[in-house]
Specification:
The structure is a single chain. By secondary structure, this protein is α/β, with parallel strands linked by helices. Helix content is 28%, strand content 31%. The protein has five helices and seven strands; from the N terminus they run H-H-E-H-H-E-E-H-E-E-E-E.
Length: 197
């Protein structure tokens, strides 16, 4: 049995200068599957990003998907600030799961809403998002970035956290199905996100 030629020999990966590594990773994402795809996402997460730059990975299922997801990310942010459960129910799946920065896991949208109703946690005087990456894979999209929040009871205190939101296109609409966020230590906070080492 003949051994398959390495990707570079097959023309799937081209030789590159170190400055074009990011471009090569993005191009390779379309042909990589399984665990290797996750590795590419991890490598992408290590690059320094500046406010306003967004990496788009993969191919959206529709040309308007990027704009829709950006809009839904903002609707979700505004819904959390206003505690607008009707608006959030339109874009959060009933089976929405959350790994929250308070070290709790919520296993449904109803559980998150219940926590919001009973708690003053996650009440903000200010809540901003910087989207750094949107990765598309069929009917799934992963949005990653930085959030900057100021608690309602301490509006002059600003905290940053890394976040990942997972969206799924189902029944003709994008719904948020999973979320993870973690506060950054004070020394690691910067307006443009964490720096690559």
């Amino acid at each position: 049995m003949e051994e398959e030629a390495p990707p570079m020999a097959r023309g799937l990966i081209t030789p590159m200068k170190s400055t074009s590594l990011l471009s090569a990773l993005l191009a390779s994402f379309r042909i990589i599957h399984g665990p290797a795809k996750a590795l590419v996402l991890l490598l992408l997460a290590g690059f320094e990003l500046h406010a306003g730059e967004t990496i788009i990975v993969g191919q959206p299922r529709d040309p308007g998907d990027e704009a829709t997801l950006r809009s839904f990310e903002d609707r979700s942010r505004r819904g959390v600030v206003a505690r607008d459960y009707t608006a959030l129910a339109q874009i959060w799946s009933e089976r929405f799961v959350v790994n929250a920065p308070n070290n709790r896991i919520f296993s449904s949208r109803a559980e998150v809403f219940d926590f919001f109703r009973k708690s003053a946690a996650d009440l903000y005087s200010s809540y901003k998002k910087i989207i750094e990456c949107i990765a598309f894979d069929g009917d799934v999209a992963v949005v990653m970035g930085v959030e900057k929040v100021s608690p309602l009871d301490a509006p002059t205190v600003s905290q940053q956290r890394r976040y990942t939101n997972v969206w799924k296109f189902t029944s003709g609409a994008w719904l948020l199905i999973a979320r993870q966020s973690s506060y950054l230590p004070s020394a690691a906070q910067s307006p443009s996100g964490p720096k690559a080492k």
